[in-house]
Every structure is written in structure tokens, then in C-alpha cells.
């Protein structure tokens, strides 16, 4: 008879552990659904927060590995290319 009561006790413990695990899973499920609803209300994706549309900084600008002289040379090249493009546009507009 002692064996039977021990088995019953073990079964009862297992059942309580299973019920507790199910309760915890249910709470987590409710929390996830609540978080998802909050995300839909704000209308913003957390992965996209802080991103700005349009051209992004170049890799060398983000890494900050160039010297000031290198940066000046690159900026001068960009300005020269921009001026050249403006001249071409003016010639085209003037009658080409």
C-alpha cells in the first residue's frame, strides 16, 4: 500500500508542475499579444526607428578612418563633379 500512495503523490506533483508550466505559457502568450497590439497602435516598426529616408552617409564617414586631408580631397572632388554637372545642364538649357 505504501507504494500506491507514493505513486499518487508523484503523479500529483507532476500534474501541478504541468499546470504551472501551462499557466506561465498562457501569461507569456497574453503578454506577446498585448505587445503586438501596442506596436500596431503606434504604427512604427521598432526596427526602423531612427532611420531617415534619402541618401545615407558613406561608409568612410561612419567609420571615421580618413584623415582631414583625405576628407577635404573627397569633398573637393564632389564639389568639382557637382559644378561640372551644373555646367552641362546650363549648356543643355542654353540650346545645346
Question: What does this protein look like?
Answer:
The structure is a single chain. The protein folds into two domains: about 1-50; about 55-95. About 75% of the residues lie in helices and about 0% in strands. The model has no long low-confidence stretch (mean pLDDT about 80). It contains three helices and no strands. By secondary structure, it is an all-alpha fold.
Task: Report the β-strand fraction as a percent range.
Answer: under 5%
Q: Which class best fits the helix and strand makeup?
A: mainly alpha
Shape: elongated
> Into which percent range does the helicity of residues fall?
over 70%
Query: Which value, in Å, is the CA radius of gyration?
Result: 33 Å
Low-confidence stretches: none
Order of helices and strands: HHH
Number of strands: 0
Counting DSSP H or I runs of 4 or more residues, the number of helices is: 3
The largest sheet, given as strand count, sense and whether it forms a barrel, is: none
Averaged pLDDT, please? 82
Span between N and C termini? 108 Å
Question: What is the total number of structural domains?
Answer: 2
Protein topology:
Layout: H1 2-42, H2 59-63, H3 68-94
Write a concise synopsis of the structure shown.
With about 100 residues, this protein is an all-alpha fold. The chain contains 3 helices and no strands.
Observed structural traits:
single chain; 96 residues; mainly alpha; 2 domains; 76% helix
